[in-house]
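@channel sequence for tomorrow's demo:
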Amino acid sequence: MSDAASTDALFRPIEFGAIAAPNRIVMAPLTRGRSGPAFVPNAMVTEYYRQRAGAGMILSEATGISAEGLGWPDAPGVWNDAQVEGWKRVTAAVHEAGGRIVLQLWHMGRIVHPDFNGGAPGVSASATTAPDHAHTPTGRKPHEQARALRLDEMPRIVDDYGRAAQNAKAAGFDGVQLHGANGYLIDQFLRQSTNLRDDDYGGTVQNRARLLDEVLGRLVEVWGAGRVGVRLSPNGPTQGCDDPDPAAIFGEAARVCQKHGLGHVELRQPGPSGTFGATDVPQQDALIRSIYKGPLILNSDYTAARAEADIASGRCDAVSFGRPYISNPDLAQRIRTGAEWSPNVNAPKSWYTPGPEGYIDYPALAETVTA
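structure tokens (generated this afternoon):
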């Protein structure tokens, strides 16, 4: 893949709140499963992010805020000192290479299989069961029913996010992004198919957005609004999480983002072959853009030409690229020069497998030319 069209808009500098970026090419969050059974980022993870520091801003892979909230083998965490030390090496390497990196904070909610928590069920807005299978340390297993969080547990969840945000600051990140998308905990509270509550966190759109509001408030307390963002997925079902009136609930979510003055909002715009399923519903980015006035980042299946067009037209302010960054560590340079994009020849085999193959062994453009 290559794109010789003008990319002037993509290379205009931008401020994502308090984070100044030299271009509008964002590296999207990508779970890669290379942090080992203790969930500690290692030397391989450090090299992976260092190679991709040419992005205007890196959004890190989803990172567990607590043992309760992480249910993906070998994904990273940020709840203990060893994990913070691992991330320190990553952020130092990215900064030394001239980049900026934001930590995505993740609680998977009902997607966490009991195998990760000593047999205890996952937690969610309500006692529901995700479809399909969970990835566990011993292989794929059917999801099991989660238990509903009690009202008296909600402050603990907010505290877990706050503690993770403090740890992210100690680890040297430039900011944090709340993972509010893809059918994970925050999304489970937002949407009616997974939120069956009749208390202060259920029913009305204001109540279903309450946890989003409270968590963002805590993150802003820690970081300041200009270094906090959120990822949302307002377009269609993801991992069994859906809503009959997405405009109402995501309009409310956008109002929450505007209230807090966030540094960015990233929207997943799934295509027909998206990881979390196809969708034919109307895109909600125009609605959210009419309410949230800060930098809007769109994501999913973009080419350089389409990214340029959407930024130039004002539809969004930046575009995040996911899978292209797997096999193109210097994607921004390739876009700038109109060079070919390397195909992800090992996908999907190597997305989550341990080891460097399909992870840090993709050559940069200069190496390819030399070869």
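heads up for whoever presents: Residues 139 and 302 are 32 Å apart (CA to CA).
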